[in-house]
UniProtKB/TrEMBL annotation:
Coiled coil: none annotated. Residues 32-138 form the Transglutaminase-like domain. InterPro entries: Papain-like_cys_pep_sf, Transglutaminase-like. This is Transglutaminase family protein.
Length: 202
């Protein structure tokens, strides 16, 4: 399977290593997780996969867990151990950037089986040394019907888009969470409110 065409929002790769209010990889909570994972898996590839599994498996998706809390800073996601796909993606990006691995935020639009109720889903793209391009990863968290895995070859995402249902793989690799995503997260007092205000397109 050919790796799909992905487009950097910013041509400067350094932009995909930067810390920010959301991707706050200079925060002590983030740094503590980085130190632990890096001591166990010092190489870039092993670390990227270990950080993937850490976010996918030890930070429950708040909808799966029935957790009403909304997080959006990487440090909050890791400290409070909860978040939806957007938040978990921000946390994974922060763990990667903290180790000098370029990480981008990217998105899909998904829908029900009849094309109704579209919603934006968050992913992370990673650029590892020696690889031929960015590779998208999905840290949403597995459950019955969802079986995503870290992969630098064929994508192993939670969902494959179905164009016939107006689903979309957005090609842009963002340095920061898309404004529509971040605005929804920051404005939501709890997850039930967030569920009513999730962006439906970018």
């Amino acid at each position: 399977m050919e790796r799909r065409e992905l487009v950097q929002q910013n041509p400067d790769i350094a932009a995909y290593l930067a810390a920010s209010e959301a991707v706050d990889h200079d925060h002590p909570v983030v740094r503590a997780v980085v130190r632990r994972l890096a001591s166990e898996c010092p190489g870039a590839y092993a670390y990227a996969e270990a950080a993937y599994r850490y976010v996918r498996d030890t930070v429950p998706h708040s909808a799966d867990a029935g957790d009403p809390r909304v997080t959006w800073r990487a440090s909050d996601v890791l400290e409070r151990r909860t978040g939806i796909c957007y938040a978990k993606s921000i946390a994974y990006a922060a763990l990667l950037r903290a180790r000098g691995v370029p990480a981008a935020l990217c998105y899909q639009r998904l829908a029900d089986d009849d094309g109704s109720n579209p919603v934006i889903h968050g992913l992370v793209a990673v650029l590892l040394p020696g690889e031929r391009g960015w590779a998208r990863q999905d840290v949403r968290g597995n459950k019955p019907g969802v079986d995503a895995h870290f992969s630098l070859g064929e994508e192993r995402l939670a969902w494959t888009v179905r164009p016939e249902f107006n689903e979309v793989d957005y090609p842009v690799l963002y340095t920061e969470p898309h404004p529509a995503v971040l605005d929804a997260l920051r404005a939501a007092p709890d997850r039930p409110y967030l569920w009513r205000t999730l962006p439906t397109e970018l």
